[in-house]
Amino acid sequence: MAIDRRGLLAAGLAMTAGCTPAPLARPSSPPTSSANADGRPRRVVSLNPCLDVILVQVADRDQIAALSHYARQDYGSTIAPLARTLPFTYETAEEVIALRPDLVLTGRHSSLATRNALDRLKIPAALFGVPDTVAESLDQVRQVAAVVGRPERGEALARRIETALAAAAPASGTPPLSALVFMPGGFASGPGTLMDEMMRRTGLTNAAGRYGLRRSMSVPLEQVIADPPDILLSGEPYPGAPSWAERVMEHPALSHLAGGMNRAAFPERLLFCGGPVLIQTAAALSRARDAALASRR
Fold this sequence. Notes:
The chain is an alpha/beta fold. The protein has twelve helices and eleven strands.
């Protein structure tokens, strides 16, 4: 399956964007006759990969009329195996309308043409922004659960995420380590992003700050070599041409830094979204931290 990494970055971007989140928009019209008697929507379509990962956790399977096509991509999605068992769309208005949804979950980067068409046809839609913090991400989990009529599942999922973050926190007295997480194209997450907070919560100092980054910006390889972080985290190999992140990991110049910089794989699918993905992100960061500390003993 072809990997649309540019599309994933535009559609997700929760961990790196540093955008002010748009508030949740209430459905634009009352649920249609396909809704349950209690008002819970029966046919929900998600047009955003970060909403996909929440939806599959909080909704009944038969409520999900379709996910975004991004959810099916192994390299970019944490729910690909499950997503391939569910219907999907390419976000066109025609596809969504044909599914006769009574609720559509959209994001800031969802197709504006599709969103406008839904509005004209009075199809209920809820718009979500891009969370910059763990607190905002947990709120989004609760909001998605609420609009699909399962608020108790949202609370349970939020508690699971909080428990995972607590488990990934460093032990008291753990020495601080600096780390840099690379995105495709050489971008790194700077201060004020969700990834930056996740690093701090797992006892890592974001090296992007000392490189002068503001939000997400490109870091020259020469700068990394001249002032290496304690840990360099980058993507995993995937079929086809190597990514920029992979080429960085294999650059000969980095071999001379082996004694002072640990390298660890950090799957790019953990970069795109918050919500339940934070459970895996916290575990990956804490493993990298523990491996780096062990190498110093």
